[in-house]
């Protein structure tokens, strides 16, 4: 029987298209079969194909299945891409698993030579940290952003809001912003005034 007669996809792009179409129709079992076939015939290790199923699990809020699938990817020698880490970041955000959020976000940023900032995910991670009053996590996030060359007024204001929520004073914030060549705005001054009335935080600040 000829290859065309049994309708076997010829490359990753075709597998990608088939799996994507099946998932849109909620035909998950068929999509999984096609993916398993792709694993057996393709040696490309293209994470774009794997990310389709990973996204499906995460969108269904099935993080345990998503984690198991991620482990399967790694075991098969598929290198996680920026999108892989971004998907996991969003998934853990929904679960409010802060340590995993920060770890995956850091790996996402570090997986590309030049990171194009995603303001939506930055705000969402900070919002989650603010809700928890997690100043340690907020400082860790700032370190990741600074190392990627992305520190600005909004980022520092988001950090300050987390300190306000925690009832902690953020020390030398003006100096840190000056070091990063970041301007203070009206909100910055208001937040600094609020935190100045609070107790000093014991969080270890990394400004290198």
UniProtKB/TrEMBL annotation:
One of its GO terms (molecular function) is mRNA binding. PROSITE patterns: PPR. PPR repeats lie at residues 46-80. InterPro entries: PPR_rpt (IPR002885), TPR-like_helical_dom_sf (IPR011990). GO terms for cellular component: mitochondrion. Gene3D superfamilies: Tetratricopeptide repeat domain (1.25.40.10). It comes from the Eukaryota. Pfam families: PPR. Keywords: Repeat. Belongs to the PPR family. P subfamily. PANTHER family: OS12G0527900 PROTEIN (PTHR45717:SF45). This is Pentacotripeptide-repeat region of PRORP domain-containing protein.
């Amino acid at each position: 029987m000829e290859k065309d007669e049994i309708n076997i996809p010829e490359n990753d792009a075709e597998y990608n298209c088939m799996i994507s179409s099946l998932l849109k129709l909620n035909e998950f079992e068929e999509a999984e079969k096609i993916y398993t076939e792709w694993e057996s015939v393709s040696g490309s290790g293209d994470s774009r194909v794997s990310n389709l199923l990973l996204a499906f699990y995460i969108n269904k809020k099935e993080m345990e299945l998503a984690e198991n699938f991620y482990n399967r990817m790694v075991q098969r020698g598929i290198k996680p891409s920026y999108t892989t880490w971004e998907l996991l970041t969003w998934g853990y955000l929904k679960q409010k698993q802060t340590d995993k959020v920060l770890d995956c976000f850091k790996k996402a940023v570090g997986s590309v030579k030049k990171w194009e900032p995603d303001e939506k995910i930055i705000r969402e991670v900070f919002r989650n940290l603010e809700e928890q009053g997690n100043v340690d996590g907020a400082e860790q996030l700032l370190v990741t952003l600074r190392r990627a060359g992305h520190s600005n007024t909004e980022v520092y204001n988001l950090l300050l809001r987390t300190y306000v929520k925690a009832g902690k004073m953020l020390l030398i914030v003006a100096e840190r912003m000056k070091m990063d060549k970041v301007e203070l705005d009206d909100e910055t001054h208001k937040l600094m005034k609020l935190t100045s009335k609070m107790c000093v935080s014991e969080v270890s600040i990394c400004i290198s």
